[in-house]
RNA sequence: GGAGGGAUGCGAGAGCGGCCGAAUCGGAUGGUCUCGAAAACCAUUGUGGGGCAACCCACCGUGGGUUCAAAUCCCACUCCCUCCGCCA
C-alpha cells in the first residue's frame, strides 16, 4: 500500500511511481477521491462531535426534560445517516484504486523500459553448450519424467525421480543450514492462505491471475513462501531490539504461469509446482538497504559454491513489479541457450507490504513501519536445470557439486544402462 | 460432525446502555531516596485519521443492526479453549 499523504505532498514519491509506467490518470483519480473523502470526512466528524455533545447532555438531563433534546439529536442522527454511506462508498473506491498503485521505484533504480536491466557484475567464465541440454540429460538419466506428469496433471508438471530427489533434499539441507548460520529461523509455512493474506503480502490484486484458488475461492495456493512468512508479524508493533527478524521459508510453490504459453517449454525450467527456500527479513526502516546487500551477498555465495557462472542485474523501473522499490536478479549462464537466465532475485519492499500488514517498530522518536525484504535462497527445479548443464560428466552422467556430497552421499550420477 | 465457554490496552484481568479510551495488578520508562544497587514512593506509558495549533473523530476479535447514546443489547462471521464422536 502506498502512502497517500506522501503521494499528494511529495513530488519525488509520485515520480517514483510514474517511473513504473503507471498512468497519471490512476494517480490523479486516486488523489481526487482522497480529496473528496477528506472533505466529507470533515463534515461527518463535525456532525459526530455535535451528536456526541448532545447525547452526553441528554444523559445529564432529568427524564421529564429529555424528549425535546432527543428529538433534536434524532435530527442529527438522520443527517449523519445520509452522509455516512457516501463516505463508505468513497473509501471503498479509494482503497480499490490505491491498491493498484505500485511502490515507487527507488531513485537508484535504472531507468528505461522492460529488459533494460543494468548489469552490476559478472562472475565466472561462460562455456560452450554441453553435449545434452538440461531436459535431454534429465530424461536420459531418468531424473525427470514430464510425459507422464502431463498425463496426470497437464503441461508444466514433472515427476522428479531417483537421484533428482536426493539432490533436491541435499540442496534444501545445505541451503537451510547455511541460512540458519546467518541467523535465519527456518520455517515450513502453510501454503494455502486467505485472500486477505494475499492482499497484505502485496500480491493481490495485481498478481491475482498468477494464483491458483481452491476451496471455492476461500483459499489460495501461494506462489512463494514469502506470502505466509510476511503474515508472521501481521499487526504487530515490534521492539527495536527484536529486529532484524530473518526467516527461511521452505515450501512448495504454485504458479499458474499465465501468459507464458510456448515459453520455456523444455524441461523443468518453468513449472507450475516447485519447491523453494526463500529468505524473508523484517528490518528497522533505516537498515533495509544494508539488508538488501546482505541477502544478495548470501545468494552470490551460494551460487559461487555451486560453481555456476552468473551475473547480477539491477532491474529497471519498468520491470520491477508492484511491491519492490528495488530488485536485483541473479542470472546464471545457461549454456544450451547461450544466455543468462534468472535463478534468484532479491527485493527491498521498503514499507509497502508492512503498511498493508500493519507491522511496525517502536523507536525512540515514533512508531514506524518496518521494512520487508525477500530473496530466493534456492529454487530447486531451476537450480537442478543449471546443475544438469554445468555438472555433466564426459560420459553423459553428472558430477555432484562438492558442497552437496555430504548431504546426499553421492559423488556421481551414472548413466542408466 | 455434535455440545458448551471465551475473544478488552505490552501482559494478566475488571467493566450497571450515558460519568469508560476504559478500574486494578504486573511490565516498561523517567524521577525521589542510596556511595551504588535492591526495596519503597511519585509520575508517565495504546493505535490510526482530519486540521496538523488549540482541538476534533474513530477503534474494546471482524462485519452488520437497535438506540439520542453501546466495550456493555441483537444478528452473522472468524479465531481460541473444553467435552463427545470420527479418522490417523
Q: In angstroms, what is the radius of gyration?
A: 27 Å
Strand order across the largest sheet: 1-11-12-13-16-10-9-4
Give start-end ranges of low-pLDDT stretches: none
Percent of residues in helices comes to 40-55%
Strand content: 15-25%
Record keyword descriptors for this entry.
single chain, 417 residues, alpha+beta, 3-stranded antiparallel beta sheet, 13 helices, 21% strand, elongated, RNA-binding
Concise synopsis of the structure shown:
It is built from 13 helices and 18 strands.
Description:
- With about 425 residues, this protein is an alpha+beta fold.
- It is built from 13 helices and 18 strands.
- The protein has helices at about 5-10, 10-20, 25-60, 65-100, 135-140, 145-155, 165-180, 195-200, 225-230, 290-305, 350-355, 380-390, 405-410, and strands at about 120-125, 145, 160, 185, 190-195, 215, 220, 235-240, 245-255, 275-285, 310-315, 325-335, 340-350, 360, 365-370, 370-380, 400, 410-415.
- Helix 3 runs antiparallel to helix 4 (about 65-100) and helix 5 (about 135-140) packs across helix 12.
Amino acid at each position: 500500500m502506498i502512502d497517500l499523504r506522501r503521494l499528494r505532498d511529495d513530488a519525488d514519491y509520485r515520480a517514483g511511481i510514474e517511473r513504473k509506467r503507471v498512468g497519471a490518470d490512476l494517480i490523479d483519480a486516486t488523489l481526487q477521491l482522497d480529496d473528496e473523502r477528506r472533505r466529507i470526512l470533515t463534515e461527518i466528524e463535525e456532525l459526530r462531535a455535535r451528536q456526541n455533545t448532545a447525547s452526553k447532555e441528554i444523559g445529564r438531563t432529568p427524564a421529564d426534560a429529555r424528549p425535546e433534546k432527543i428529538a433534536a439529536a434524532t435530527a442529527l442522527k438522520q443527517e449523519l445517516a445520509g452522509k455516512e454511506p457516501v463516505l463508505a462508498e468513497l473509501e471503498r473506491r479509494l482503497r480499490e484504486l490505491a491498491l493498484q498503485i505500485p511502490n515507487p521505484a527507488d531513485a537508484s533504480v535504472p531507468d528505461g523500459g522492460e529488459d533494460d536491466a543494468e548489469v552490476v557484475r559478472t562472475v565466472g567464465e561462460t562455456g560452450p553448450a554441453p553435449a545434452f541440454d538440461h531436459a535431454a540429460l534429465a530424461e536420459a538419466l531418468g531424473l525427470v519424467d514430464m510425459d507422464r506428469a502431463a498425463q496426470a496433471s497437464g503441461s508444466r508438471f514433472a515427476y522428479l525421480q531417483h537421484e533428482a530427489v536426493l539432490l533436491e533434499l541435499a540442496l534444501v539441507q545445505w541451503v537451510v543450514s547455511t541460512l540458519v548460520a546467518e541467523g535465519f529461523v527456518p520455517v515450513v509455512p502453510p501454503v494455502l492462505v486467505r485472500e486477505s493474506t494475499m492482499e497484505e503480502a502485496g500480491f493481490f490484486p495485481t498478481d491475482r491471475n498468477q494464483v491458483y484458488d481452491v476451496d471455492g475461492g476461500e483459499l489460495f495456493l501461494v506462489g512463494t513462501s514469502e506470502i505466509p512468512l510476511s503474515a508472521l508479524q501481521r499487526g504487530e508493533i515490534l521492539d527495536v531490539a527484536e529486529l532484524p527478524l530473518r526467516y527461511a521459508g521452505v515450501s512448495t510453490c504454485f504458479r499458474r504461469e499465465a501468459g507464458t504459453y510456448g515459453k520455456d517449454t523444455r524441461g523443468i525450467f518453468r513449472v507450475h509446482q516447485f519447491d523453494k527456500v526463500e529468505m524473508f527479513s523484517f528490518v528497522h526502516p533505516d537498515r533495509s538497504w544494508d539488508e538488501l546487500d546482505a541477502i544478495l551477498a548470501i545468494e552470490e555465495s551460494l551460487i559461487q559454491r555451486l560453481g555456476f557462472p552468473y551475473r547480477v542485474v539491477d532491474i529497471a523501473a519498468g520491470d520491477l513489479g508492484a511491491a519492490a522499490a528495488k530488485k536485483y536478479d541473479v542470472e546464471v549462464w545457461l549454456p544450451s541457450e547461450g544466455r543468462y537466465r534468472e535463478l534468484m532475485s532479491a527485493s527491498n519492499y521498503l514499507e509497502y507490504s508492512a503498511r498493508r500488514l500493519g507491522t511496525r517498530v517502536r523507536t525512540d522518536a515514533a512508531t514506524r513501519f518496518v521494512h520487508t525484504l525477500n530473496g530466493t535462497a534456492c529454487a530447486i527445479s531451476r537450480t537442478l536445470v543449471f546443475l544438469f548443464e554445468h555438472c555433466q560428466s564426459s560420459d553423459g552422467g553428472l558430477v555432484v557439486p562438492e558442497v552437496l556430497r555430504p548431504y546426499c552421499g553421492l559423488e556421481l550420477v551414472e548413466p542408466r544402462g
